[in-house]
Amino acid sequence: MKQLSKICSKLYHDYCLEDFKYRRNVSLSKVSDEPLLVLLLLQAELGIKSQRHFYHICQLFPCGKRLERSRFDRRSKQLIWLIQIIHQAMNNQLSPDIVVIIDSFPLPLCQSVRNHQAKIFEGTADIGYNASKHLWLYGFKVHMLVTLSGYILNYVVTPASVHDIRAVEDLLENCQQPYILADLGYLSRELKDHLVQKGYHLWTPLRQNMTGANQHNHWKLMAMRRTIETRFSELCALFDVEHTLARGLSGLQLRLEQIILVYNLRDFKIN
Predict the structure, then answer these.
(1) Residue 269 pLDDT class (50, 70, 90 cuts)
(2) C-alpha torsion 186→191→197→199, nearest 10
(3) Is the pLDDT of residue 244 over 90?
(4) Mean pLDDT of 148-153
(5) Calpha distance 230→98 (Å, rounded)
(6) Residue 193 has what pLDDT?
(7) What are phi and psi of 105, to 5 degrees?
(8) Span 199-205, mean pLDDT?
(9) In angstroms, rounded to a whole number, what is the distance separating the alpha carbons of residues 86 and 98?
(10) CA distance 158 to 165
(11) Looking at the predicted structure, is the pLDDT value of residue 271 above 70?
């Protein structure tokens, strides 16, 4: 907690906008933003998915005792914007010359046998096919932009049926890194030409029956691209990111923002 408090104090002081720090009636709050941010990062570190369960744990800390359950949930979701500001400020400190990788992983909301009966996120989530796991799922798909070192630059959540290519434009928003590695799911001449016009160089492997595939599919580039799969495995092992108990879009967004910030801080230097 002491280490998290030190980190959050530094992040809040350096990156939080003055308009947010001194917003209307902020002086009347029983708990300030900093200790609440500490609790949210602690929740991600502990891997606790249930907000109800974590609220009871917060009663062990003085700041947690001052908030009612409903107010705790509302204040937590208000900090989504602050976490995004911190994330973007950290992104701006990265070198623009590094190589980045794009890929996606499924976010199922139920077992496959209940795909057609599930009502959660009705109208937002849908049924899609995951080729790597060979299964149909009801839920979402999380698209991520990651550096070779594992730092998560950006993410986009779409319904499970949305093709990876359709999320690329949003994923590369504000991306300063021009070299992008991807898998066969992003193989498209139209997409590659479109990104060239925007100043990006997209590399994807070629299918084995395509001309020049043996020379193009260099083992070093293939190995570099596969590092994102290791990052996804770490997110699943450390935070169980593929399984969420969120029942609303704001709760889902809060959970993803918590996990990504904590994961990025592991390799980010705080002076």
Answers:
(1) low
(2) -10
(3) no
(4) 90
(5) 18
(6) 95
(7) -140, 155
(8) 94
(9) 21
(10) 12
(11) no
Q: Are 177 and 97 in contact (CB under 8 A)?
A: yes
Q: How many Cβ atoms sit within 10 Å of the Cβ of residue 110?
A: 15
Phi/psi region, residue 123 (left: phi>0; alpha: psi -120 to 50; beta: rest), is: left
Half-sphere exposure of 240 (CA within 13 A, CB side): 12
Give the CATH number of domain 95-239: 3.30.420
Beta strand pairing call for 179-181 and 201-203: parallel
The overall average pLDDT reported for the chain is: 90
Question: Average pLDDT of 88-117?
Answer: 90
Q: DSSP secondary structure string, the chain? A: -HHHHHHHHHHHHHHS-HHHHT-TTGGG-SS-HHHHHHHHHHHHHHT---HHHHHHHHTTSHHHHTS-HHHHHHHHHHTHHHHHHHHHHHHTTS-TTS-EEEEEEEEESS-GGGTTT--TTBTTBEEEEETTTTEEEEEEEEEEEEETTS-EEEEEEEETTS-GGGGHHHHTTT----EEE--GGG--HHHHHHHHHTT-EEE-PPPTTSTTHHHHS-HHHHHHHTHHHHHHHHHHHHH-TT-----SHHHHHHHHHHHHHHHHHTT----
- Give the pLDDT band (50/70/90) at residue 212: confident
Give yes or no for a contact between 129 and 136, defined as CB atoms under 8 angstroms apart.
yes
CA distances from 228 to 87, 208, 245, 268 (A): 19, 22, 25, 18
Distance, CA of 79 to CA of 250 (rounded, Å):
11
What's the mean pLDDT in 9-26? 85
**Mean pLDDT calculated for residue range 186-204:** 94
